Fold:
Amino acid sequence: MKHFKKEDTILLLIDHQVGTINFATNRPKEMIISRTKALARMAKALNIPVVLTCSMEDQMQGLLLPELKELLPGEYDSRIKRKGITNAWDDANYKAAVLKAANGRKNVIMAGLTNDVCIVYPSISMAEEGFDVQVVIDAGGSPTQIADDIAQQTWEKAGVRTTAINQLITEFASSWENEDGAKLIKILGEEIIPTFGKFN
Structure:
């Protein structure tokens, strides 16, 4: 398993919208939001490029979460607004934005809503094109646990890895005592550790 480093990684947050979060009923909204915030903060702290995208934001999916607008204002303003294409990687504007932001980076962290529709297909498509993809499963969800389980099984069969927020952050922190580790443990302490015991 290749170890992800900040210099060779990009973060893709897909369809974390005020409407789509209501479709992810297999885990609490608060859990998804805390993990998504931690990802955004981690990327900002480590200078990892981020691309945001939304689908049909003028309909029931709604705008991206206000937390993303607050944490990543530039990325929010330049978000790719898709017209309903379910596999974001099939959207020419999105693909171009990702490739430009990646600038040759081949490691991809991906999370979004929902795992069974909006994440499974672009994660597989990117893996097929030579990217090493990790899906942060607890920064997203699905309408049912069955749907989430099937999505995970499907992307893993295609070579996409599944991770969770603590595992991912630890991957980037070679030591809690160096500069990056200190930044990351602060994020854990503010966004994740206070949620321990609240979610299964």
About this structure: DSSP finds eight helices and six strands in the chain. The two ends are 27 Å apart (CA to CA). Residues 19 and 60 are 6 Å apart (CA to CA). The domain at 6-193 is CATH 3.40.50.850 (Rossmann fold).
